[in-house]
Specification:
Blueprint: E1 2-6, E2 12-19, E3 25-31, E4 34-42, E5 48-54, E6 57-65, E7 71-77, E8 80-88, E9 94-100, E10 103-111, E11 118-124, E12 127-135, E13 139-146, E14 149-150, E15 152-158, E16 162-169, E17 194-202
Antiparallel strand pairs: 1-2, 2-3, 3-4, 4-5, 5-6, 6-7, 7-8, 8-9, 9-10, 10-11, 11-12, 12-13, 13-14, 13-15, 15-16, 16-17
Protein backbone atom coordinates (compact mmCIF):
# COMPACT_ATOMS: atom_id res chain seq x y z
CA UNK A 1 0.00 0.00 0.00
CA UNK A 2 1.22 3.49 -0.82
CA UNK A 3 -0.22 6.92 -0.33
CA UNK A 4 1.68 9.98 -1.42
CA UNK A 5 3.20 11.91 -4.27
CA UNK A 6 4.01 10.46 -7.68
CA UNK A 7 5.74 11.82 -10.77
CA UNK A 8 4.29 11.97 -14.29
CA UNK A 9 5.39 8.37 -14.91
CA UNK A 10 3.38 7.26 -11.89
CA UNK A 11 6.46 6.41 -9.82
CA UNK A 12 6.57 7.25 -6.12
CA UNK A 13 8.21 10.65 -6.05
CA UNK A 14 8.17 13.30 -3.32
CA UNK A 15 6.71 12.49 0.08
CA UNK A 16 4.77 9.34 0.84
CA UNK A 17 3.86 6.54 3.23
CA UNK A 18 4.17 2.88 2.36
CA UNK A 19 3.37 -0.45 4.00
CA UNK A 20 5.55 -3.25 2.64
CA UNK A 21 4.29 -6.81 2.07
CA UNK A 22 6.47 -8.04 5.00
CA UNK A 23 4.75 -5.65 7.45
CA UNK A 24 7.52 -3.01 7.54
CA UNK A 25 6.51 0.62 6.98
CA UNK A 26 8.27 3.64 5.48
CA UNK A 27 7.36 7.26 5.70
CA UNK A 28 9.53 9.80 3.91
CA UNK A 29 10.96 11.01 0.64
CA UNK A 30 11.04 9.14 -2.65
CA UNK A 31 12.77 9.79 -5.93
CA UNK A 32 11.70 7.97 -9.10
CA UNK A 33 10.17 5.08 -7.16
CA UNK A 34 13.03 4.58 -4.68
CA UNK A 35 13.49 5.72 -1.06
CA UNK A 36 15.78 8.74 -1.43
CA UNK A 37 16.17 11.68 0.92
CA UNK A 38 15.01 11.68 4.53
CA UNK A 39 12.71 9.05 5.93
CA UNK A 40 11.76 6.74 8.78
CA UNK A 41 11.64 2.99 8.26
CA UNK A 42 9.96 0.81 10.91
CA UNK A 43 10.72 -2.90 10.88
CA UNK A 44 8.11 -5.40 11.97
CA UNK A 45 10.61 -6.79 14.55
CA UNK A 46 10.69 -3.45 16.40
CA UNK A 47 13.83 -2.01 14.84
CA UNK A 48 13.67 1.52 13.44
CA UNK A 49 15.84 3.63 11.15
CA UNK A 50 15.43 7.34 10.74
CA UNK A 51 17.78 9.25 8.47
CA UNK A 52 18.94 9.64 4.92
CA UNK A 53 18.44 7.26 2.03
CA UNK A 54 19.87 7.04 -1.45
CA UNK A 55 18.20 4.70 -3.93
CA UNK A 56 16.60 2.48 -1.25
CA UNK A 57 19.82 2.21 0.80
CA UNK A 58 20.69 3.88 4.11
CA UNK A 59 23.20 6.50 2.99
CA UNK A 60 24.32 9.69 4.74
CA UNK A 61 23.45 10.44 8.36
CA UNK A 62 21.03 8.26 10.24
CA UNK A 63 20.07 6.63 13.53
CA UNK A 64 19.25 2.93 13.80
CA UNK A 65 17.46 1.52 16.86
CA UNK A 66 17.97 -2.25 17.10
CA UNK A 67 15.42 -4.63 18.66
CA UNK A 68 17.81 -5.50 21.55
CA UNK A 69 17.86 -1.86 22.70
CA UNK A 70 21.20 -0.97 21.13
CA UNK A 71 21.50 2.07 18.89
CA UNK A 72 23.83 3.45 16.21
CA UNK A 73 23.92 7.13 15.27
CA UNK A 74 26.26 8.26 12.53
CA UNK A 75 27.36 7.86 8.94
CA UNK A 76 26.06 5.24 6.50
CA UNK A 77 27.27 4.25 3.05
CA UNK A 78 25.16 1.83 0.95
CA UNK A 79 23.36 0.31 3.98
CA UNK A 80 26.61 -0.16 5.95
CA UNK A 81 27.83 1.67 9.06
CA UNK A 82 30.72 3.56 7.49
CA UNK A 83 32.45 6.83 8.40
CA UNK A 84 32.03 8.21 11.91
CA UNK A 85 29.43 7.14 14.42
CA UNK A 86 28.49 6.25 17.95
CA UNK A 87 27.13 2.86 18.97
CA UNK A 88 25.38 2.25 22.29
CA UNK A 89 25.38 -1.50 23.00
CA UNK A 90 22.61 -3.37 24.79
CA UNK A 91 24.89 -3.91 27.84
CA UNK A 92 25.54 -0.16 28.15
CA UNK A 93 29.04 -0.15 26.58
CA UNK A 94 29.65 2.57 23.99
CA UNK A 95 31.93 2.96 20.98
CA UNK A 96 32.57 6.33 19.38
CA UNK A 97 34.79 6.54 16.33
CA UNK A 98 35.42 5.35 12.81
CA UNK A 99 33.59 2.56 10.99
CA UNK A 100 34.00 0.63 7.75
CA UNK A 101 31.78 -2.16 6.38
CA UNK A 102 29.60 -2.23 9.53
CA UNK A 103 32.66 -2.81 11.78
CA UNK A 104 34.71 -0.65 14.15
CA UNK A 105 37.65 0.30 11.94
CA UNK A 106 40.16 3.16 12.33
CA UNK A 107 40.44 5.34 15.43
CA UNK A 108 37.87 4.91 18.16
CA UNK A 109 37.07 4.89 21.86
CA UNK A 110 35.28 1.99 23.52
CA UNK A 111 33.92 2.51 27.07
CA UNK A 112 33.13 -0.52 29.24
CA UNK A 113 30.11 0.40 31.34
CA UNK A 114 30.72 -2.16 34.12
CA UNK A 115 34.26 -1.03 34.98
CA UNK A 116 34.39 2.47 33.52
CA UNK A 117 37.56 1.41 31.64
CA UNK A 118 38.22 2.89 28.21
CA UNK A 119 40.10 1.63 25.15
CA UNK A 120 41.32 4.55 23.05
CA UNK A 121 43.14 3.64 19.86
CA UNK A 122 43.16 1.68 16.63
CA UNK A 123 40.69 -0.90 15.36
CA UNK A 124 40.91 -3.25 12.39
CA UNK A 125 37.74 -5.02 11.20
CA UNK A 126 36.04 -4.75 14.59
CA UNK A 127 39.07 -5.88 16.63
CA UNK A 128 41.45 -3.85 18.84
CA UNK A 129 44.62 -3.70 16.75
CA UNK A 130 47.45 -1.14 16.71
CA UNK A 131 48.68 1.61 19.06
CA UNK A 132 46.27 2.31 21.92
CA UNK A 133 45.74 3.24 25.53
CA UNK A 134 43.64 1.26 27.96
CA UNK A 135 42.50 3.70 30.66
CA UNK A 136 41.36 2.37 34.04
CA UNK A 137 40.20 4.22 37.14
CA UNK A 138 43.65 4.82 38.70
CA UNK A 139 46.11 3.69 36.07
CA UNK A 140 46.41 3.21 32.32
CA UNK A 141 48.29 1.02 29.88
CA UNK A 142 49.95 2.46 26.82
CA UNK A 143 51.11 0.04 24.15
CA UNK A 144 50.12 -1.87 21.06
CA UNK A 145 47.37 -4.41 20.50
CA UNK A 146 47.17 -7.32 18.09
CA UNK A 147 43.91 -9.22 17.50
CA UNK A 148 42.31 -7.72 20.59
CA UNK A 149 45.21 -8.46 22.99
CA UNK A 150 48.14 -6.28 24.07
CA UNK A 151 51.46 -7.45 22.59
CA UNK A 152 55.02 -6.12 22.61
CA UNK A 153 56.54 -3.24 24.56
CA UNK A 154 54.40 -0.90 26.60
CA UNK A 155 54.00 0.73 29.97
CA UNK A 156 51.53 1.04 32.82
CA UNK A 157 51.17 4.57 34.11
CA UNK A 158 49.93 4.90 37.71
CA UNK A 159 48.18 7.99 39.02
CA UNK A 160 50.46 7.96 42.09
CA UNK A 161 53.22 9.14 39.73
CA UNK A 162 55.22 6.15 38.55
CA UNK A 163 55.40 3.89 35.51
CA UNK A 164 56.01 0.23 35.01
CA UNK A 165 57.73 -0.51 31.71
CA UNK A 166 57.72 -3.95 30.18
CA UNK A 167 56.55 -6.17 27.41
CA UNK A 168 53.61 -8.45 26.65
CA UNK A 169 55.04 -11.75 25.42
CA UNK A 170 53.07 -14.41 23.56
CA UNK A 171 53.57 -17.75 25.38
CA UNK A 172 54.44 -20.76 23.26
CA UNK A 173 51.93 -23.58 23.13
CA UNK A 174 53.29 -26.92 24.28
CA UNK A 175 51.86 -29.57 21.98
CA UNK A 176 51.39 -32.99 23.51
CA UNK A 177 52.63 -35.96 21.52
CA UNK A 178 49.61 -37.56 19.96
CA UNK A 179 48.92 -41.15 19.07
CA UNK A 180 48.62 -41.60 15.35
CA UNK A 181 45.02 -42.78 15.37
CA UNK A 182 43.72 -39.75 17.27
CA UNK A 183 41.33 -37.42 15.53
CA UNK A 184 42.57 -33.88 14.88
CA UNK A 185 41.13 -31.84 17.74
CA UNK A 186 40.01 -28.27 17.45
CA UNK A 187 43.07 -26.00 17.43
CA UNK A 188 43.66 -24.78 21.00
CA UNK A 189 42.66 -21.23 21.83
CA UNK A 190 45.69 -18.93 21.71
CA UNK A 191 47.09 -18.27 25.18
CA UNK A 192 46.87 -14.75 26.57
CA UNK A 193 50.07 -12.71 26.29
CA UNK A 194 52.02 -12.49 29.58
CA UNK A 195 53.24 -9.15 31.00
CA UNK A 196 56.96 -9.09 31.81
CA UNK A 197 58.21 -6.09 33.81
CA UNK A 198 61.54 -4.53 32.83
CA UNK A 199 61.70 -1.49 35.14
CA UNK A 200 59.76 0.95 37.26
CA UNK A 201 60.41 4.65 36.70
CA UNK A 202 58.91 7.99 37.48
CA UNK A 203 56.63 9.43 34.79
CA UNK A 204 58.49 9.66 31.44
CA UNK A 205 57.54 10.96 28.01
CA UNK A 206 58.49 7.61 26.44
CA UNK A 207 55.73 6.13 24.37
CA UNK A 208 55.65 2.72 22.69
CA UNK A 209 53.89 4.47 19.80
CA UNK A 210 57.12 6.30 18.92
CA UNK A 211 58.73 3.07 17.73
CA UNK A 212 57.03 2.73 14.39
Amino acid sequence: EYEGDRNSEGQRHGFGKARLPNGDTYEGEYECGLRSGHGTYRFKNGALYTGNYLQNKKHGKGVFFYPDGSKYAGDWVHDQRQGYGEYLYANGDTYTGEWANNKRHGQGTYVYKDTGSKYVGCWVNGVQDGPAELIHLNHRFKGRFLNGKPLGRGKFIFDIGCEQHGEYIQPVQVKEIEKEDEEEDEPPLPLDPIWKVSEITKITPWSPHDEE
